[in-house]
Amino acid sequence: MISIRHIFKTGIGPSSSHTMGPARAASIFKAEHPDATDYKVVLYGSLAKTGVGHGTDAVIVETFAPTLCHVEFDVETEDLPHENTMDLYAYAAGKELGYMRVLSVGGGNIRIEGRPDAEPKQIYPHSTFRDIADYCTENDIRLSDYVEKFEGPEIKGFLMDVWHTMQEEISRGLAATGRLPGPLNVGRKAKDLIRQRHIDESTETEQNRLVCAYAFAAAEENACNQVIVTAPTCGACAVVPAVLKYMQDKKGFTNEDIIRALEVAGLIGALVVTNASISGAECGCQAEIGTACSMASAALCELFWMDLNQIEYAAEMAFEHYLGLTCDPVCGLVQIPCIERNAVAAMRSINALSLANFLSGTRKISFDMVVKTMYETGKDMHRKYRETSEGGLAKHF
User: Fold this and answer.
1) What is the pTM of this model?
2) What backbone torsions phi and psi does residue 140 show, to the nearest 5 degrees?
3) Which CATH fold would you assign to the domain 11-118?
4) pLDDT tens digits along 226-270
5) Residue ranges per domain, the chain?
6) What is the C-alpha separation between 312 and 84, in angstroms, rounded?
């Protein structure tokens, strides 16, 4: 299983699959063909159908600059190795110097066809929650200890940087005003949420307002092409930081506590990458926001020192109730319904924490079963509901 470093990537929004992944591919290809006088990139599948809204063409041209790059959108080809496929060509004096096919598989991660050496290193000996749980039980350790054992002590420093960036994206978002970029004319809402405290606000209402404000803040920063952390993707980046910030502010958890929680969240994300997908283009929004909600739920359980069974129950319950969720961004923008989905998922993760505290002994469904089901559901889903902006809200808006 891959390192959780591949789950938490710091970069510029709005889309890990459509901007971060293609930018990385272009950067690698440019470095390998520095003598090219011009480049061409052909985008297929979801990259072609929502690439303009996500700014895919713009980030590719910017990465190859100052050398000229022509971007083509092929919306007809359907026989693809992945829903986010791109071909890169390098030319000089009218002759082709090089070619590379890249699959942008979610979370900013890419695969280069014919280049297994470019795959992320596998650092964990287990690939299912069940096997990890058995190992932790046999060795009397927590999931966070498991992560540190195989990632090494330096993972704490990495995650501290991740946490600082998450805090910064929320802080910036809470202070910002104005409209999000693009034709939808969506106004920022985070600052309004953080300020609109009712004079007799209940504890429950305050929690809802603050958690949602933090989620809106991070998601709006992502939509505005600002620096954020994938968790596990750009489109679902706000769920984990929103609940962790709220719990730290409300309950006084230390940064060290938050790091433990992020270790567990990252482990859940890595399990989904290993056994399914975090790509909205491949499996719908269930793969993105469902994974994020599951990660946040498990992280909260770790914060409150819950046992393995409770952590698994919260993670699978959070995921289970997102099964079948479509990815239908209006105009190909990570705004409607994406931003609100982050806020709702953040609140749902807190609900999963509470239920796991009371009902974990009644669990019938395993986390591994939910992940497998999500992947099968995503593959069965019609492609127009998988980040093509051809179905759902995107069609009727």
Assistant:
1) 0.94
2) 55, 50
3) 60s Ribosomal Protein L30; Chain: A; (3.30.1330)
4) 999 999 999 999 999 999 999 999 999 999 999 999 999 999 999
5) 11-118, 129-396
6) 31
